[in-house]
Design goal:
Blueprint (H helix, E strand, L loop, with lengths): L1 H12 L7 H13 L7 H11 L3 E10 L6 E5 L2 H13 L14 E4 L5 E4 L5 E18 L5 E4 L11 H10 L2 H9 L4 H9 L7 E3 L6 E5 L8 E2 L29 H26 L4 E3 L9 E3 L5 H31 L22
Antiparallel strand pairs: 1-5, 2-5, 3-5, 4-5, 5-6, 7-8, 8-9, 10-11
């Protein structure tokens, strides 16, 4: 039995070769996040071998041949039903074996034959339960937990879905994987990220007015806003690196806000000049591509020019109005600026000023 069962390990695990460190790390990262759908049985075996403490061996287990309810065996008459039942009784057991024989069928609860079965109620039949000995793979965790991976009556191959559920529920595989990677478990990492963000060591950016971490520089009285990005949809004047990076928080200084007004003013002037050229007819070609790496030009003598020109004028006009509104809001914030204490733990972040949201 052991020799025949070993063929299942050979078939499914023959591809399990020593992985490169890069391949192993990639699989461990997938397992840590639960992205295991693409991991084959051979790879699981190699990963467990590399982690250490696991056993993967061939086995023969029992596959139930029916649903939770009893199966029914039908016969043409009483004599045939008795003969079939007698054959079933020869392989019947009172208790299912812990070490079944491969391909042997085990019957339990074989009932007495009776009439009135079938669609026309003229057939004989009896109820029973049955299992077959099938080849599979036994997994033993470092803690001694066991799991038999067996085919089902619906699938002849070894589906690892149930194995992966067992890994997560009954073993410490995820902890072992995270320890091997030198990382916290994925659940612990997610819990930390979803926890309320500490307000200690933070301040308000003077450009985007969001609560941002601070870093200490040469002057301990004026910590700086760390690198952060903010892309405003619609007319969008801030992309990738916020204008307030490297400046003291707004609670301690409005220098970042003044710099933002200066830069936005330059952008406003450029867009106003471009809008004038569009409306005066000075612009005779437009780039229709939204991808900065390529260009799709249309000229004033081509079909559709008027529609594209009208759309571009509307777009630039929105940008101009947005910049004017932002500059006006920032001017008011500069005029009303006073020294304020930095946020403390438990305190809500200051709301973004109306007009800058």
């Amino acid at each position: 039995m052991k020799d025949r069962a070993r063929t299942v390990v050979h078939r499914y695990l023959s591809a399990a070769k020593v992985m490169s460190p890069e391949k192993l790390t990639a699989l461990l990262l997938k397992i840590r996040k639960g992205a295991t759908a693409s991991i084959k049985l051979a790879h699981w075996a190699e990963v467990l071998t590399q982690l250490g403490g696991w056993k993967v061996d061939p086995t023969v287990g029992l596959m139930q041949l029916h649903d939770e309810s009893d199966s029914i065996e039908l016969a043409a008459d009483q004599d045939q039903a008795e003969r079939i039942r007698s054959r079933f009784l020869q392989d019947s057991v009172h208790v299912l074996p812990t070490h079944p024989e491969e391909d042997r069928i085990y019957y339990m609860d074989v009932g007495e034959p009776s009439s009135g079965w079938g669609f026309n109620k003229n057939m004989w039949g009896f109820r029973y339960k049955s299992w077959r000995g099938v080849k599979g793979v036994k997994f033993v965790s470092p803690e001694g937990k066991e799991f038999d991976l067996l085919p089902s009556r619906y699938r002849k191959d070894l589906d690892t879905t149930s194995l992966e559920k067992w890994f997560r529920k009954d073993t410490k595989l995820l902890e072992q994987v995270s320890n091997r990677l030198g990382l916290p478990t994925y659940e612990a990492e997610r819990a930390e990220k979803s926890a309320p963000r500490s307000r200690n060591g933070t301040g308000t950016c003077g450009a985007c007015f969001r609560n941002i971490k601070l870093k200490m520089k040469s002057d301990p009285q004026l910590p700086e806003i760390v690198l952060h990005g903010y892309e405003r949809p619609g007319w969008g004047t801030i992309h990738g690196r916020c204008l307030g990076c490297g400046y003291p928080p707004f609670e301690l200084s409005c220098e970042a806000t003044k710099e933002a007004v200066k830069i936005l003013g330059q952008q406003l002037k450029g867009n106003q000049e471009y809008l004038h050229k569009l409306t005066s007819g000075e612009i005779q070609q437009l780039n229709l591509s939204s991808d900065p790496r390529r260009s799709i030009w249309i000229t004033s003598d081509q079909f559709g020019w008027e529609g594209h020109l009208k759309s571009k004028i509307s777009e630039v006009d929105r940008i101009v109005k947005g910049l004017e509104k932002d500059i006006q809001t920032l001017h008011k914030l500069i005029q009303g600026w006073t020294l304020q204490p930095l946020p403390v733990e438990g305190q809500k972040a200051a709301p973004i000023p109306i007009g800058l949201k």
